[in-house]
Amino acid sequence: MRDTHPTKVHLTEAAATLIDEHGSQGFTVEQLLETSNISKGSLYHHFEDFHDVIMQAQVLRFARYVEEDIEALTRVLLAATSREDMFDRLDFISRATHDPARSVRRADRIEILAGARHSEKMKNALAPTQARLTGAIADLVREMKAKEFVSEDLDPGSVAVFIQAYSLGLIVNDVSSESIDMDKWHVMISRMTRGLL
């Protein structure tokens, strides 16, 4: 959003904050205008409609999640000194990202991704950010391959998508009335990554 008009940035950030507090359908145009202290005319000058504001705010929220994930993965994995150290670091990342306290983040990301199912505009808006996350994870896999910590025959892009899929897939447990034992989950993920990579 670096090259975007400051008013549009401010409205998008205000909408993102309101979504964090109330959900994507939990506030009105009037609440957004009051929170942002921007006029209705300015809103409709910078956005097609209220739905467009929500979409842009969701893309911003998604990008923030992605940037945090890229930074954390890069910081932790690039410091690995051996294959076993890499696996220990992956275990640490797994425990942190699969923590039940992060269920809201998982639900947010799934809601945002699901918004692209029926909206080509949303899909196109999310695509570069999602590609950046997948690319960053794939680059880390390549780094691990170069250090001979990861099997040479694995496709980095496929590994990157797989890692994201099982992390987001934990939403199934987040909404279940009978949650799995998270210690057993982490043991399974640890064995799976060691066997796969």
Structure description:
It is built from ten helices and no strands. The chain has 197 residues and is mainly alpha-helical. The protein has two domains: 47 residues, Orthogonal Bundle (Arc Repressor Mutant, subunit A); 141 residues, Orthogonal Bundle (Tetracycline Repressor, domain 2).
Short description:
With 197 residues, this protein is mostly helical.
Largest sheet: none
* Rg computed from alpha carbons, rounded to a whole number of angstroms: 19 Å
Order of helices and strands: HHHHHHHHHH
The overall strand count is: 0
Number of helices: 10
Helix/sheet category = mainly alpha
**Can you tell me the overall shape?**
elongated
Spans of at least 5 consecutive residues whose pLDDT stays below 50 are none
Chart the SSEs and their pairings.
Elements: H1 6-22, H2 29-36, H3 40-46, H4 50-77, H5 83-97, H6 103-114, H7 120-146, H8 156-168, H9 171-174, H10 182-196
Helix pairs in contact: 1-2, 1-4, 4-5, 4-6, 4-7, 5-10, 7-8
List keywords for this structure.
mainly alpha; Arc Repressor Mutant, subunit A; 2 domains; Tetracycline Repressor, domain 2; 10 helices; 197 residues
